[in-house]
Amino acid sequence: MPRKPKNPHSKAASPTAQELKGDIDRGRTGDNVSSFDPGAAPLGTDDEAAGRRDTPPRFEEALRQELETGRIARLERPDRSAVGPFVLAAERGRPVSPNIQIYRPQLTSVLSIANRITGVILSIGAVGLVAWLVAGASGPRTYAVARDLVSSLPGQIVLFAFTFAFFLHLCGGIRHLVWDTVHGFELRQIYFSGWVSVAASILLTLAAWMLSMIIGS
Amino acid sequence: MIIRSSDEVPRTTVLKRFPVPKNMGLPPQSRIKKGKKWPAPAAAKRVKAFEVYRYDPDSGDNPRIDTFEVDLDACGPMVLDALIWIKNNVDPTLTFRRSCREGICGSCAMNMDGTNWLACTRFISDLDEPARIYPLTSRAIVKDLVADLDHLYAQYRMVQPWLQSKTPEPDRERLQSPAERSQLDGYYECILCFCCTSACPSHWWNPARFLGPAALLQAWRWLTDSRDEAKEERLDNLEDPFRLYRCHTILNCTRTCPKGLNPGKAIAEIKKMMIERQS
Amino acid sequence: MRSPLARASGLGSAKSGVKHWWAERASAVALIPLTLWFVAALIAHSGSDYAAFLSWMLQPHVTILFIGLLAALFYHTALGLRVIIEDYVHSSMKFAALLLVDLGCAALASAGILATMRILFSH
Asked: Residues C66, C70, C76, CA angle at the centre, nearest 5°?
């Protein structure tokens, strides 16, 4: 049961024709966008011609109805800026069939989203790179802070994760560059290159870290 | 491990679906509820369970999943045969599109066990237990397994899929060498079933503005047709961060095409043509 | 109540997009040797101290490669993050997010390059 909207105007008296017209023009009712509507004959003309003064109950009721339709229209108005998956369907009142909720993960989609996730991880790493450089430029003490952070156990785990993300994104990126030359699009090539890039990423990460540990000691 | 053609069903499954909530992101009227169970006739020996997406627009209820037990000895080997058996023997209200029953009309495109394919060319024996039958992914649903394809047809219309010429019509055929004609192979065979577009995650997130693999494959079919004289306009129409460039070479499309076509490759060819006209 | 064709056509083709595509690939190709060099240098300098870090960074070719790495890295990052935001953000937040990415990457690249130059010129 909709709430009876309060008369937003007067503290005591009931609304006048001018107030109702003003609400319509300002777009507070359901059927108009807020713009000036000249109207062939201003609201209230007939009443004036008939010698009727403002009759409060009629305008009270008219204002109540108009504001209520306005409130409902604002609730139902689709978000124009959202053009995501469900707006088109919702406009016709139809449900949308599920997508990521039921679609089978395949090498194609999994490696693709992995490339994107590793890209985002590396973006964060880029910020870290700048921080490390700024620490280095600010003198030996700030550099020591940065170095201790990286050399700590959690720092090394994070660095290991970044290394794996880097090699996965590198191999995925090279796979993409080959596709851009319109090569390697047969399904068997897509799958073969996919598995190769995963294997290469793991091997390169392990090799990098083993080398690092050998050199560091 | 290495899939050689799109009709291969994977032998091992690590994940049947992405580990996300079952109704994640679905607006309220799209959330799926539990439905009815329809047991097989008592005499049936070989029985398979099918979980089928149902939606009745007249009832105003949410979509639901009904489980049908199908007598495999009483119906043909394809998923479409099972659906027809259900409609004839169990629930006549089950609604789905079908026509040729031989994989050429594209009507029965739907999502079976998580991947899009034609019901008439998918073997029941290739499915899980229970089999999961859903409509084409991420489409507005008219009823049960019938998807609203209006928007996809509009996107197809946008690539102007007809021959455009500026020189006057010749008084005989527009000639095309065998080599030129072979440029159309792999693209003209598309049956517009829209399995690929419905499988594309980029089209899930941007259905209004990204044209999708089906429309773009047809766009390439016309771009590569030697008789067409409107390459400039076609490329201008496509060069847009959304219409063409929402494609990130995810390649779900090529993986799922029930005719073995390669939309991913067609789109890569379009991007290559785009670059070629810049330098 | 727009027709399906009107809804699909949207605001028409932007007639642009190739430049972004090319720039993403060009920066990617540049990044392959630059990042591999950087990772190799990190491995080679495992366990070294500030003095070693400085003497490595003060070499002119290292400064040049570092500046190249930072420029290509943040350009590629900005392009990639732009695509991600365009994919997933459809509300009015989209343009704010795109601005943030573009300006943020420019700022970070500048900071990194300035830090590199500072190391070079104060030693």
From this structure: 140
